[in-house]
Design brief:
alpha/beta; Rossmann fold; Molybdenum Cofactor Biosythetic Enzyme, Chain A; three-stranded antiparallel β-sheet; 38% helix; globular; binds adenosine-5'-diphosphate; binds ligand LB5GJZVW; kinase; kinase activity; transferase
């Protein structure tokens, strides 16, 4: 069985979607369970953590706890899933968590493969591209929590780990599995502990997966995990579970400020009542929440409503000037509380834009595990609660989805 630790919630749904797409049955756990549990029939377990932007020591602790739990439940192959745009800071957490996992399960050097060509993330000469732009020239340079201003992943990772980092060039990857194994051997002898792999397309991912499938630890985006799943699939294929979205009204919550989300929010505003959480206008957190709660209550008979904090950089700066340094956390908490209110009020389809935001929402809803259904857009699967009331959640990474994703997600919602 394959066990994945994902450093945020939409990263977890992304990797779960990829594994399901290649025919694996996937159980998604919200955080690491405290005790041992009887597992449903599944081929892969994804543990959703919220460790991307917390202090490194806590991220390591959370990750090791998840790894030990998975090992206790029969997992021998581990995958550490982080963002395809390598979201992290110089204080961590990708390098330090990978180091801790290597210490726990062995298998240095770790493969570092954020590339996800289906989402336009590719790596060449160790540099990460978003579409045709270098990472540092994409909107990720302005991310509210993890601004990515350096596209050279060898350099980025070297600031996060005391150990040597090197790159595996595309030419070597394309020379076949023996060349990849030789590169790994060479890296081991040179004391390299992190190997950034160039990837230009899905064929490269398949080649890499085939060459490294037997390693105890792989790390990267959803792309390599899906390729690994496809490689393992022959022994594990089964019919995908059916998917029924529950009847009932929908709620869309948006906390992501990515370009993709801003466009999706603009589209959604055209077709459903919308309320903006605006810290510049309402800097008092309590008032921000109660105003939104009143608005939600007033619109209780609408089949779908949108509440969003998403804003471009200049508006965010104005909000932060008014509300202070905790603005992002206040907005996450507010959106999470509103999700809870909406569930109590009977909303059954909850769509969330943003990884950190999704983490806060799922935590507030006290959900423990979800079964992964089909994707609404690549990397964005519907997930179903395993307890009553049946909720369908769509947890969307900020950067993912077509412009009409939020509109499509609420279609067919009943008042
Ligand atoms: N108007 C705003 N001002 C400041 N921070 C904001 C604003 N709107 C959202 N945020 C914060 O930005 C962060 C977005 O992160 P996240 O939810 O992970 O989205 P993404 O998936 O795009 O990275 C969250 O912490 C959210 O609370
Ligand atoms: O790998 C990816 O791009 C996503 O799975 C992911 O992790 C996105 O993170 P957020 O943009 O913070 O949602």
């Amino acid at each position: 069985m394959l066990g994945c630790l994902a450093d945020d919630f939409t990263g977890a749904t992304d990797v779960a979607a990829g594994l399901r797409r290649v025919g694996l049955q996937v159980l998604l756990l919200i955080g690491t369970p405290i005790k041992k549990m009887a597992l449903p029939d599944c081929d892969a377990i994804v543990v959703a953590l919220k460790s991307r932007t917390i202090p490194a020591a806590e991220a390591i602790e959370q990750s090791l706890r998840a790894q030990r739990w998975l090992a206790d439940h029969g997992v021998t192959r581990f995958y550490f899933k982080y963002c395809s745009t390598f979201d992290s800071t110089d204080a961590g957490n990708i390098g330090l968590v990978t180091d801790a996992l290597l210490d726990a399960v062995g298998g240095a050097p770790a493969i570092i493969c954020p590339a996800s060509p289906e989402h336009g993330r590719t790596v060449y000469q160790g540099h990460l591209f978003v579409g045709s732009q270098l990472l540092s020239e994409s909107s990720m340079a302005h991310h509210p929590l993890t601004p990515m201003t350096d596209p050279d992943l060898v350099r980025v990772l070297a600031r996060q780990t005391p150990h040597p980092v090197a790159a595996l060039p595309l030419q070597q990857l394309r020379s076949g599995p023996d060349a990849v194994r030789a590169a790994l051997q060479q890296a081991t002898e040179a004391g390299v502990r992190h190997l950034i792999t160039d990837i230009a397309d899905d064929t490269d991912l398949a080649a890499l997966a085939a060459a490294v499938a037997d390693r105890p630890l792989l790390t990267g985006g959803a792309g390599l995990a899906r390729a690994l799943g496809a490689h393992l699939r022959s022994t594990a294929a089964r019919a995908a579970t059916e998917d029924h979205l529950p009847a009932g009204p929908a709620l869309v919550l948006a906390g992501s400020c990515s370009t993709a989300t801003l466009e999706q929010v603009a589209r959604a505003r055209e077709v459903m009542p919308a309320h903006q959480l605006d810290p510049a206008l309402t800097p008092d957190p309590h008032q921000l929440l109660t105003r939104a709660q009143d608005w939600l209550h007033k619109h209780r008979s609408e089949p779908a409503v949108l509440i969003y904090a998403s804003a471009p950089a200049d508006a965010r700066a104005a909000g932060q000037a008014a509300m202070g340094p905790d603005t992002a956390t206040v907005l996450e908490t507010t959106l999470a509380t509103l999700a809870n209110n909406a569930r109590e009020a009977g909303r059954r389809r909850i769509i969330v834009a943003g990884g950190e935001t999704s983490g806060a929402v799922v935590k507030a809803l006290s959900l423990r595990s979800l079964l992964v259904g089909p994707e609404a857009d690549p990397g964005v699967p519907w997930c179903h609660t395993t307890t009553e009331p049946h909720l369908a959640l769509l947890l969307k990474s900020g950067n993912f989805g077509r412009p009409d994703l939020l509109v499509r997600a609420v279609e067919g919602a009943t008042p």
